[in-house]
Specification:
By secondary structure, this protein is mainly beta. The chain has three helices and 25 strands. The strands form seven sheets. It has a six-stranded mixed beta sheet with strand order 3-2-4-1-5-6, sandwiched between helices. Strands 8, 11, 12, 15, 16 and 17 form a six-stranded mixed beta sheet that branches. A hairpin with a 4-residue loop joins β2 (76-79) and β3 (84-86). The relative contact order is 0.11. The model is unreliable at 1-6 (pLDDT under 50).
């Protein structure tokens, strides 16, 4: 699996000659990065300061065989020369193996001191600014922490860092640039669209389709983060009240990770209860907050609504240009809307000398004296 290209260069783990048999049967979890945690690691042997790959292989072997941890507890390692190494494969978006951690990018700083050399500062600037630009990680979500390894726990944990490392780290990141908006753009494809071409008025039209992730990186979707929307973002007369998320958005994708090339089977329904007979063309697209289109996800639905046994009426001319719509079939009832003269409306019900119609989603009653049945 290939994840999104990040705005910094790093040495891939598969080039570091790890003993992958030690971590070959573990489950990988993914999430949208929301914060960055940085640990200070000081090697027990100084010669390893100049050989980061060897230290990483030894550390991996040590925590897996001694503590029976599943894999490395961080996504990246940055050394005092500013070199960046991938600590777990497919590190962007992959959850590191730390107790209770979801949504964090974890980084180990390998150095004999708690301060940051100019080269190390460059490496951290590239990594932190790259993640902030793509995932809108603010400065207050970038934290120095202390790694805690214990034989009494199945995973390492962490606690807030104090002292020189904390002060040096917070000072370093003070003038980094941070983004308030996410700049990662999704691309997808909607295919295999299935629905009836003809339905009778009053029936619901089910539309099923497949949404494919056509990016070369995973989508990390939080609940309510990606919606299906009308093509123009406007409210739809086909919306189903209390079923659609809103009158312009049929549904939101559930919280999940969608890998490159992965496909999702999805469906939704249209309401035709108060829609006039005729041919219709509706457009939809997927959007991600805050209203950013997913490229390539637009699709069109064409269908015809037949009248069936239902009646259509046309509003006759009135002095005001519209006919009063009442909340019940009586002149003593509350006025709820106005039906435009010359417009046609589908009859939902009728009682004595009254027709029940819907005007802009508001249902009510009009007198038959000013509503003429039409073919």
């Amino acid at each position: 699996m290939v994840l999104a290209e990040v705005n910094f260069s790093f040495t891939n783990r598969r080039n570091l000659q790890f003993d992958e048999s030690l971590s070959s049967n573990i489950e990988a979890n993914y999430h949208r990065p929301q914060q960055i945690l940085v640990f200070h690691i000081e090697p027990t042997h100084n010669y390893l300061l100049n050989d980061t790959p060897t230290w990483m292989r030894l550390f991996h072997y040590y925590i897996v065989t001694r503590y029976e941890y599943p894999d490395m507890p961080f996504n990246y390692v940055i050394d005092s020369s500013g070199n960046i190494y991938e600590a777990i494969e497919d590190s962007e978006g992959r959850a590191s193996y730390i107790e209770g951690e979801q949504g964090s990018v974890t980084v180990a700083y390998l150095s004999e001191t708690s301060t940051f050399s100019p080269s190390a500062q460059r490496g951290f600037r590239e990594l932190i600014e790259g993640y902030s630009y793509k995932y809108a990680i603010r400065k207050d979500r970038v934290k120095p922490v202390e790694l805690i390894i214990s034989e009494n726990s199945s995973l390492p944990s962490y606690e807030p860092s104090e002292g020189v490392f904390q002060e040096s780290f917070l000072s370093m990141i003070e003038d980094f640039e941070y983004s308030e908006t996410m700049n990662l753009r999704f691309s997808g494809e909607v295919k295999d669209i299935q629905h009836q071409k003809n339905i009778e008025s009053g029936e619901r039209l089910e539309i099923s389709f497949i949404l494919k992730n056509t990016d070369n990186f995973s989508w990390y979707i939080d609940e309510g983060f990606v919606f299906l929307s009308t093509i123009d973002g406007e409210e739809s007369p086909f919306a189903i009240n209390q079923v659609w998320d809103s009158f312009s958005k049929p549904f939101a994708l559930e919280s999940q990770t969608v890998f490159p090339g992965e496909e999702m089977e999805l469906s939704f329904e249209l309401e035709t209860e108060s829609i006039l007979p005729g041919n219709y063309e509706l457009g939809f697209k997927f959007v991600m907050l805050p209203d950013i289109d997913i490229l390539g996800s637009e699709f069109i639905v064409n269908f015809e609504i037949d009248r069936g046994e239902r009646k259509v009426v046309q509003i006759r001319r009135t002095n005001t240009g519209e006919l009063t719509v009442y909340s019940c079939p009586s002149y003593t009832c509350t006025l709820v809307a106005g039906a435009i003269s010359g417009e046609k409306y589908l009859v939902l019900d009728e009682e004595e000398s009254w027709y029940k119609i819907s005007v802009d989603g508001v249902e009510g009653w009009v007198t038959m004296h000013y509503a003429t049945p039409v073919d």
